[in-house]
Every structure is written in structure tokens, then in C-alpha cells.
UniProtKB/TrEMBL annotation:
Cellular-component GO terms for this entry: protein phosphatase type 1 complex
Organism of this sequence: Pararge aegeria aegeria
Pfam families: CBM_21
UniProt name for this protein: Jg6812 protein
InterPro entries: CBM21_dom (IPR005036), CBM21_dom_sf (IPR038175), PP1_regulatory_subunit_3 (IPR050782)
Length: 284
């Protein structure tokens, strides 16, 4: 009797707990059958065979994306059909093979690149042609008036004027000077010229003309310089004042343009070297 009680206690300990989870998915729980009474007491319980269990899903899996099977009729409605104004009206004037030109109306134009302003500089300029450019008038002035301004060169960087004067060789002793003014002849200044060279000599071996050079400084506090030429020989003065108008060099404001490179053409000997004793050449 005690053995039977111990067996029942061991069975309770064995069947008192739940089987592992793996058994629930693959097998059915064990079925205990009633024990039979024998001559020796109660026999051990008989366990039935474990049969595999096939699990089935109750409902089919659902997708996370909802598919709508509702079909609705679509139609296009324009704004003017409902009484609203159209946003933009464009009348096409271009030919069919030319795309419409809407860039200036729809797309904002990019800002134009500003060019650097052209600097304005002050330049000294002579207000008279070079006297030697008119050869006949230049030669006549020397023969009749015994003195004439030949040419001038304005040097902007040096703020100066270089020039030459030709005089009649009346005597070996002579003086040549330039009289200048920058205030309308309220004040004046004399600048003496230096001897440069003698002209061609005649049959007696005496030159007919002499050349003198000078340099004038341009005024700083004025925009105008007037001058004339004086030739003094044997206590007599001969003047070249451009027939009473005087020679003028003025400062003017001009826009500085880009420099253009030019090729220098050499025509051989300078025309100033073509001198002879017969006096028929255009220069001496």
C-alpha cells in the first residue's frame, strides 16, 4: 500500500507541471488511463502513444498596403469653366518651328555685369598745327620775318614741352627766347633757347639758318599756357606770335582709352636729313 502511495506521489510530481513549449507545438498531451487492480496491488499507468499535431492558421495573413478596388470616374475641369480667371494668357506669335521666348517675362533676368568706369585724365594738348607741316608758309616766315617756331612735343609724363625754333643767320651773335604766360599775360616769363645745329651752308661756306631748342615747364595751377618766340640780333627783335594770336597749349579732360599697339614703319632716311645747297628740297 505504501508503494502504491509513493508511486502516485511520483506521478503527481511528474504530471503536476506543464510540459515544455516544444511539446505543445508538435505533440498532443499525454493521456493517462486508469490503473488496474492486481493481486499485488495497483499496476503502473499505461501511457498512450504521442501523435504529432498539425497546426493550421485560422486566418490568412493581411498585407500592410491597402489596395482599394473602388473605381471612380475622373474628369478635367478648367478654371474658367467655374468662373475663375486663368493664371496666365500667352498669345503665340512665333513661328511653329521657333520656341516661345518667355525668358524675359517669366524667368528673372540675371543682373548685368557692371563694367568698370573709364577713368578721366587731364591731358595737355596744343591748339595749333605744327608750323613746319606747312613747308611753304614756314619757309616764307623765316625769309621774311627771320624767325619761326618749327615744332613742339608735349610730354605728359614730364609735364613739359620741348620744341625747336629756326632763325635767319643774320649775325654770329644772336639770342632766341620763349616768352610764356599762364594767367592771360598778367605775368610773363622768358626762357632762353640753346643752339642745336646750323643749317646747310652756301657757296661761301656760311649757313643760312640756325636751329635752337627749348623746354618749357607746364603750369601746375593753370590749365592754359600761351607763348611766343623772340629772335634778338644786332639789338633788333623779331617776333613770331602766330600773327598776334600766340601759341596755346591747354589742358583738357579726356576719357582714357585702352592702348593700341602700333608697328613702327621705317621709311629709310628721315626727311629732315634730305638737305642740299640748292634750296629746292622740302626741308633742310
Amino acid at each position: 500500500m505504501c508503494a502504491a502511495i509513493d508511486m502516485l506521489g511520483s506521478e503527481q510530481m511528474f504530471y503536476g507541471r506543464s510540459p515544455p513549449a516544444g511539446f505543445l507545438t508538435d505533440y498532443t498531451p499525454q493521456v493517462r488511463r486508469p490503473t488496474k487492480l492486481t493481486s499485488r496491488g495497483y499496476s503502473a499507468p499505461c501511457l498512450s502513444l504521442l501523435k504529432p499535431v498539425q497546426l493550421t492558421l485560422k486566418a490568412a495573413p493581411r498585407s500592410c498596403i491597402r489596395l482599394s478596388t473602388d473605381k471612380k470616374n475622373k474628369r478635367v475641369v478648367f478654371a474658367d469653366d467655374r468662373g475663375y480667371a486663368l493664371e496666365h494668357v500667352k498669345f503665340m506669335t512665333e513661328p511653329s518651328h521657333v520656341p516661345p521666348y518667355w525668358a524675359l517675362k517669366i524667368v528673372a533676368s540675371p543682373p548685368l555685369e557692371r563694367k568698370a568706369p573709364v577713368p578721366v585724365v587731364d591731358v595737355w594738348e596744343q591748339r595749333f598745327p605744327q608750323p613746319a607741316s606747312d613747308y611753304l608758309a614756314f619757309r616764307r616766315r623765316i625769309n621774311e620775318d627771320f624767325v619761326s617756331l618749327e615744332n613742339v612735343i608735349v610730354k605728359q609724363n614730364e609735364c613739359a614741352v620741348d620744341g625747336t625754333v629756326k632763325v635767319k643767320n643774320l649775325d654770329f651773335s644772336k639770342e632766341v627766347f620763349i616768352r610764356t604766360t599762364s594767367d592771360g599775360w598778367r605775368t610773363q616769363e622768358d626762357t632762353y633757347c640753346e643752339f642745336v645745329e646750323s643749317g646747310p651752308v652756301n657757296q661761301a661756306g656760311i649757313s643760312s639758318y640756325d636751329t635752337f631748342g627749348f623746354r618749357l615747364q607746364l603750369p601746375i595751377h593753370s590749365r592754359r599756357l600761351d607763348f611766343c618766340v623772340c629772335f634778338r640780333c644786332k639789338d633788333v627783335e623779331y617776333w613770331d606770335n602766330k600773327n598776334g594770336e600766340n601759341y596755346t597749349i591747354e589742358k583738357s579732360s579726356v576719357r582714357k582709352s585702352p592702348a593700341i599697339a602700333c608697328a613702327r614703319i621705317n621709311y629709310g632716311n628721315s626727311w629732315t636729313d634730305k638737305s642740299s645747297n640748292d634750296g629746292n628740297t622740302p626741308y633742310w
